[in-house]
Amino acid sequence: MDEGLLKNILTQSRVYFLKNRYQESCGVVFNKKVKFTPIKNEAPSGWTFSLTPRLHLIKSKIKIICHSHPFGDAYPSALDTKTAIDLDTPFLIYSCLYDNFVFFDLEKCKPYKV
Ligand SMILES: [Zn+2]
What we know:
Elements: H1 3-19, E1 26-30, E2 36-39, H2 47-50, H3 52-58, E3 62-69, H4 78-87, E4 91-95, E5 100-104, E6 109-112
Parallel strand pairs: 3-4
Antiparallel strand pairs: 1-2, 1-3, 4-5, 5-6
Bound molecules: zinc ion (ZN).
């Protein structure tokens, strides 16, 4: 993915994640419109995974799935890794605790700081 575009997404999503600092928040980046699109939080924790069936339906339209870790580091959990691979879609994770990102491209993790 283009690094300039990724930087824009990091900046946009960070604002959203910090606004929702104390809950796990989620959003997506669509293929066509390369910007961060928040998805409403209906269940305050682990809710990325309650969304998985819905994300499956639209995954061909999604470039990246983003979520925050309010109280942990930005590295994907075992469930994050499994879900990203199941959905065949990269994950971008933000740590509210350390104010940094990790981008998991389905093979490796790359850290980013805004
Ligand atoms: Zn996670």
